[in-house]
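dumping this here before i forget
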Amino acid sequence: MCGIFGIIGSTNAFIDIYKGLKVIQHRGQDTCGIITFSNKFNIKLSEGLVINSFNEQDLSKLQGSVGIGHVRYPTIGKAGIENAQPVFTNTPFGIAMAHNGNVVNYFALKNKLIKDYHRYINSDGDIQIILNIFAYHLSKNNDFNFQILSDSVKNVFKEVKGSYSVISYIAGKGFLAFRDPVGYRPLVFGTDGKRYAFASESVSLESIGINKFEDVKPGEVIFISDRGKIYRKVVSSSQHKACIFEWVYFARPDSIIDGIDVYNARYRLGERLADVLMERKDDFDVVVPIPDTSRTAALALATKLNLPYREGLIKNRYIGRTFIMPGQKKRIDAIREKLNPIKIELKNKRVLLVDDSIVRGNTSKSIIKLVRESGAKEVHFAVYSPPLKYPCFFGIDIQKTDEFIVNKTSFEKIASEIGADSLTYLPLEKLIDGVGMGRKDFCHSCFSGKYDIKLNRKDLEAIKKDRLNSC
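structure:
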C-alpha cells in the first residue's frame, strides 16, 4: 500500500502534488517524492513525511505543469530512499512513473529483464519492473500513438502479476495511467476542465479543488496528451476484486473508493458488529474507539446498542500509523508514545474497546494493558473485521502466516493472550455485506485464503525471503 498523485495542465504542478500527497500521507510514511517536467525531469526524493521533505526552495526547482508524487510503504524492497518513488528512465522518450501495489513475480521478472530484455534496474523497488517492461515494449516501435501505448500496457498486464495502480508521464507526449486487470488497488481520475489529476483516493483530488471524479476501471488505460486530448480504453478484462481492507483500515473516512464511501461503509460495519454483540450489550458500560480508524464503527455500534460512546484514548497526532511502520519493535515503541488515556472515562467501568483489526496482537495487548492500568473494571475487545489469517501479496506487508496471532494460538485463547475479558470478531459475510451492500467483488484473501490470481510458489518464497531480510 502506497499513495500516488499525478496531474497535468496545472499552473504549478508542484503545489498541487504537494497538497495532494499531504492528505494521503496515511498510505505511506517511509519515503516520499515528487517529479515534475519542464523541458527536463526535476525530481526530489526524501525519507520521512511530505511536510518535512519539501520547502519553498523546491518551488523554483520542481517547475512544470505536469508531475507525479508518491508516498511509500515498503512491500517489495527494503525501506529507505534508495527505493523511493517516482522513478524514471531516459529511453524511450523519457518516462517517469510511480505506483501503488505489489508485484508478486518481481524476482522472476527481474531476471527476465536482464537476460531477455537487456535492461538493468538500479533499485529493489517493484516499480522498476513495471517501468522497464513498459519501456521495453514501447521502445520496439518507431512511432507513438495511443494504440501503441495501449499495446505496451497490455504487455505489462500479461507479464506482471499482482496489484498495481500506475501513473506516468512520457516526456513530450502526455500523461498515462493504468490499473491492473483485477483492480486490487484504487485509482481515481478527475478534472476541473483545465487540470486532469489521478490519485489513490478521491480526497486527494478534492484537496486541490477537483470535485468531479471517477474510478479508473480495472484493466483500463487512460492517456492525456500534452495538448489536453483524452484517450481511454479497457485493454484487459477480469473480474474486479478490490481490496476490502481499504474500507476496513487503509483509506481515509472522507474518501470514496470504487463508488463506496468509506465513512458509511465503516458505519455499517459498526452496526453489523453491534448485531453480533446485541445479546451481550448489558455486559458493557462504555464504548471506546481505538483512534483514529475505528471511531466511525465504534459510534455506530454504541448508537445501535444504546451505550455511551466516549473518547477514552487520545492520540498524539505526531506519531504515524503503527500498522505501516517497518519492524515490530518500532510499532510497539510507537504505541507507547501514541495513545494516552482519559482515566475518568475508563476508571471502574466495563470498557468495550473497538478496533479495525488484530494482526500480531502485540498492539492490542499494549492498549488493553494501558486501559487496565487506568482503572477499568473489565476490558472487552471488539473488531469490525474477521480474524486475519493469511498472507497478503498484493500490497500489505504481512507475508508470513506465523505473523498472525490467530495462527499462533487457539481462537479461544486469543482473548487471554491479549489480556481481554472477551474478544469478538465480525464474521466475513457481515464484513462483505457491510462494505458492499449487495456487492461481493472484493479481495478478502487475508481473511479467507482465497486468492484471485494464480500464485507461483517460487515467487512467494522469494517475497517472504525478501521481507525477512528487510526487517
